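A further point concerns the way the authors explain their paired sequence and structure data. An entry of this sort, consisting of the sequence and the corresponding backbone structure tokens, reads as follows:
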Amino acid sequence: MAKILIVEDEPSLSEPIKAYLTHEHHLVEVVPDGAEAMERLKFYKYDVIILDWMLPGLLGVEVCKQFRANGGTTPILMLTAKKQTQEKVYALDAGADDYLTKPFDVQEVSARVRALLRRPQAVAGNVLRAKNVVLEPSTFRVTRDGTDVQLLPKEFALLEFFMRHPNQVFSAEALLDRVWSSDSDASPETIRTYIKRLRQKIDTKGSTSLINTVHGVGYKLDA
């Protein structure tokens, strides 16, 4: 699962993309203009940004420039009706990682999102592994020592996030920001509850927990 921000002012485009990516178990948020996108990006982190070029107020390419100038590193997929080579070069030079011209099929958007998600992670294929636990994002499957583990959607999303960021410590607040919707009323206690459930399901009896508590700081997955 990835947390994705779509910046698109035409519901006829944003809604099918959101529906398709949500069906693929991603957490998707939509904003209709560049100014609101910049506000979201100030306070929340996303794994991928799908950004339309032509937006009311602040153009998508300007959002891209400002986001990169502020140190933002999230992969950006630019959507636009502009097809000239120089315009594609301009978007890429502004900080976009990929470029898709309209009209397009939502399946191609999804494929490009998967490609962008693969870039930062050292992942073999589309399978994530941590010790004796294997997670397959495309099939929504988790196994421990080859035996299926049944996880609830948010448990799966939290485990996938940890497995994509092994050996990194995240506070409860950071996990809420990355795995839960920005307008969710979940709390740090929610994180503690989900961590406890995950440990019960994925840990091997008598062995050290895969997800460790770093006291006073947060949690990390030991890979």
